[in-house]
Specification:
Helix content is 36%, strand content 19%. It has five helices and eight strands; from the N terminus they run H-E-E-E-H-E-H-E-E-H-E-E-H. It has an eight-stranded mixed β-sheet with strand order 3-2-1-4-8-7-6-5, sandwiched between helices.
Length: 225
């Protein structure tokens, strides 16, 4: 989608913010969570702007030239570069959550497989896992943590509407999966967003392992003796 360009000089992105985005890209790229230039990362710059990765850049090898500024409608500011295709989903989080300071989106195998496996249910419910406590606001493993799975669409307005519908129904939201795609999560700053991402990745892996074990046990039990 073509965006109107704001030709005014963009607000300054701090060296620390640029470094944190690049470090996140290197870390997740090394883990195989950003294959084929996929994924996108952003940080809030001020009340009206965010810095986000430029479309098509290798997220495992980011530099200052790979990051641009957009306003909170997703429009480029001070550049003719194109932001990541899913910029609308990043700025939606900043609009809906004033305390959000960073948004991370990756495509790990666990995230992508889980998004397909649980798409029909519309969400994954985590209960009883100690690492639920890594998600802001969760103080005990006895909490319930729902991670919705939204239908994929090339039209970002469809995905924005799914997020809005979930939130407008009064349901807590700390991250979400997109069917056949990957995960979005966020935090007060990039450190918290990374913690949330790593926690969700671990929890998804655990849930998938339980399914594999259950399937293997069922197959073993059905073998003729």
């Amino acid at each position: 989608m073509e965006c109107a360009i704001d030709i005014r000089p963009p607000p300054s992105v701090s060296e620390q913010q640029t470094r944190e985005i690049a470090e996140a890209g290197r870390t997740f790229g090394a883990l195989g969570w950003t294959p084929a230039t996929s994924s996108n990362f952003s940080v809030r710059v001020d009340e009206q702007h965010a810095a986000i990765t430029i479309s098509g850049r290798d997220k495992g090898n980011l530099s200052v030239e790979d990051i641009m500024v957009v306003d909170l409608q997703g429009r480029p500011v001070g550049t003719d570069s194109q932001p990541s295709a899913e910029t609308a989903l990043h700025v939606q989080i900043y609009r809906r959550f004033p305390g959000a300071g960073a948004v991370l989106h990756t495509h790990s195998r666990n995230q992508t497989v889980a998004s397909r496996r649980f798409a029909a249910a519309g969400m994954i419910r985590f209960e009883g896992w100690e690492l639920q406590k890594a998600i802001a606001g969760h103080k005990t493993h006895k909490s319930v943590l729902d991670l919705p799975v939204f239908a994929n669409s090339q039209d970002m307005t469809d995905l924005e509407q799914a997020v809005d519908d979930w939130l407008d129904a009064g349901r807590p939201l700390y991250g979400y999966l997109i069917d056949g795609h990957g995960i979005y999560t966020w935090g007060a700053d990039i450190a918290e967003a990374r913690r949330h991402l790593e926690a969700f990745e671990f929890l998804l892996g655990c849930e998938l392992d339980l399914l594999r074990l259950a399937s293997a046990n069922l197959a073993e039990a059905s073998r003729p003796t």
